[in-house]
Amino acid sequence: MQVQPLDIVVVGGGAFGAASALELAERGHHVTVLDRTASPHPDASSTDISKMIRMDYGADVFYHELAEASLDVWEAWNADWPRALYHPEGFLVLSAREAEPGSFEFESERVLRERGYDPQHFDAEHLRSVWPVWNADRYPEGYVSPRGGWAESGAVVARLLKLGRGAGAGFVAGSFASLLEDGSRVSGVRYVAEDKSVRTLKADRVIVATGAWTPVLLPWLSDVLKPVAQPVVHYGVDDASRWQSPVFPPFAADMAGSGWYGFPALDDGRIKLGHHADGCVVDPEHRGTVSEDHLDLARVFLAESLPELADAPVVGTRVCLYSDSFDGDLWIGEDPERSGLIVAAGGSGHGFKFTPMIGKLVADTIERRENPWLHRFAWRSLAEPRQEAARMQH
Question: One digit per residue, pLDDT tens: the chain, 394 residues?
């Protein structure tokens, strides 16, 4: 299908925006990225040291398959890029009770096996012998997902932006002010430039990919998208090698119950511990800090599950922002009331792993191409939320 090149403005240079700009520029469109900084903005959720890459989604085969397709590209990127930014170290899934049908752990392992993978199931004795830093008394069973790991998320976004520029995408530094609208059609954006002047960018299509800021910039979406704060803590260890794969792979510890997940140590000794819970709705510009109460809860988790880390010093904290959709699914589609406006948001704490597919999803939306994934992410109104295991790790 031949598509005429379009002038496209991408608002937001995080993972969704960078991937979309690269894909659209490679398809021959004239792309301009608008963001506050030319490099990954420090406040963006994707500007972090690590994000989990996994196929484990309980019984939700749709996300398993989308993650599988994304992994194909992650592996291709590793082969093509100067340095591998995806680390395929597996994914350790720990269950705090005997895994039963319907549980995240049981269903994830079942789907993996049904789709041809061979996750390594283990009991407490095996956990104690192979991964001795874990308190096996708390985790009677679990499995190792064979295909997954973690990615250097901030570095990935920087790489995508660089590739986008190489493919012809332009970049404008400034803050989004408003859409340019001609009746029911969006024809560009107004933005505040670095010199504080208000300027315009005309476009055939505008993509808003601003993560947690999306319902603030587009307030008519505030009933279906929420900016939600989630805490992250970094601990320091003296001997990083003792806390790296394969001895200490990326993990989820009773994820659906307690919400704890984490990553192996970086070479500088930093271990990242995250917590997936309901979070709290915040103003993205005033997200707050990680509370002392949460730090206390994290200490309890470490003391009970990873006792050697019980007294590890906190070397950093971060409040990560989710762009939560009401049903946990991504939000990628054209606004039915504003022709020419495409929104790519709703990562809901689990969107980064799909970065290799996001550009294709957005570009196919713009070019009105058939795409087997888009139906799940299409524009939709509030309804009874689907039961899903989507938002497990960011």
Answer: 678 999 999 999 999 999 999 999 999 999 999 999 888 888 888 888 999 999 999 999 999 999 999 999 999 999 999 999 999 999 999 999 998 999 999 999 999 999 999 999 999 999 999 999 999 999 999 999 999 999 999 999 999 999 999 999 999 999 999 999 999 999 999 999 999 999 999 999 999 999 999 999 999 999 999 999 999 999 999 999 999 999 999 999 998 889 999 999 999 999 999 998 888 999 999 999 999 999 999 999 999 999 999 999 999 999 999 999 999 999 999 999 999 999 999 999 999 999 999 999 999 999 999 999 999 999 998 875 554 444 444 3
- Sorted by where each starts, the structural domains of the chain and their CATH numbers stand as 88-148+226-325 (3.30.9.10)
Q: Is the CB of residue 270 less than 8 Å from the CB of residue 309?
A: no
Whole-Å CA distances, 153 to 24, 159, 353: 21, 10, 9
Residue 372, number of CB atoms within 10 A of its CB? 11
**Contact (Cβ atoms closer than 8 angstroms) between residue 187 and residue 324:** no
- State the DSSP string of 148-177: -EEE-HHHHHHHHHHHHHHTT-EEEEEEEE
